[in-house]
Protein: Putative cinnamyl alcohol dehydrogenase 1
Organism: Prunus yedoensis var. nudiflora
Amino acid sequence: MQLRHRWPITCHIIPVNVHINSYKSSPITYACNNELRKCTDCLGWAARDASGVLSPYKFTRRAVQSDDVSIKITHCGVCYAEVVFPRNKHGDAIYPLVPGHEIAGIVQEVGSNVSGFKVGDHVGVGTYVNSCRECDYCNGRLEVYCEKGVVYTYNRPDFDGTITQGGFSTYIVVHQRYCFRIPDAYPLASAAPLLCAGITVYSPMMRHKMNQPGKSLGVIGLGGLGHMAVKFGKALGLNVTALAKSLDFIIDTVSADHSFDFYLSLLKTAGVLVVLGVPNEVKLKPRSLILGMKSISGSGVGGTKEMQEMLDFCAAHKIYPNIEIIPIQYVNEAIERLIKKDVKYRFVVDIENSLK
Ligand SMILES: [Zn+2]
Ligand SMILES: [Zn+2]
């Protein structure tokens, strides 16, 4: 019998099916015996039911294995996913559920095969922590589109059968492939939102060659994603505009239902509109695409290669998300404010100083 977990579309994560049992034959299944396991208590804040209210929760991470990095978490961003999953909006919540997938911190231990990271390095973890590492997408460093289903940072079964838990916690253990260098001079609090909001915008911009100065970019929705699109656009020398005619590219971050015909009419010939928000459906008249050879495209976070590029790019160009730093004790209120769009533009939880 094969267990199938349906993973519906959410925030800006792509939908995939996760075939739990298919991992059992995988050569990368973790050897989890008691000798390898070091039981260290991890303190997190978890939702216990569909109210989504977070409260303190103690649990155990896996022991550090040869390719693993253990990270003392200093900061974690608050993404709209922190509304969707703790409140079981898709009916797949596994409680207790520790959310958080914009994780920044400091390496505290590395496995014997880890060469790219050492204790004390500043690092980040984004929306996924595992993938098959064998398929075409993994080989192309686009792991988020892994054919076997990427393992998300929380609320998913990992290859060892444990349920992943997110970054509203004191530390995380992750395979080195899904861990990213944060340049030393870059503030860890600012780095956190890059790990989901930043990469979600950066990836489609690079894929559609929106790194050529002089091209024109329109942004719909100025929130956690949209404000990063504006910052990237300016750093890349694009004409970032309030919505006007003749745009090369539009980034649409709006999750409320809306008609796409108007926005498509603003594109020049062969222009592209990329959908990053999650309205219930995309409504448009086909002629909006046909006349002018226009495209509508989707995108979900990004692969590991472009994640590192994006972090280095932000450091080189001094691009910082606008953040409001909060203690973990404020997180439930922050999530309520996020729902009301009462944040400019990202909450970041100061884990290091408040989660004790
Ligand atoms: Zn997110
Ligand atoms: Zn794969």
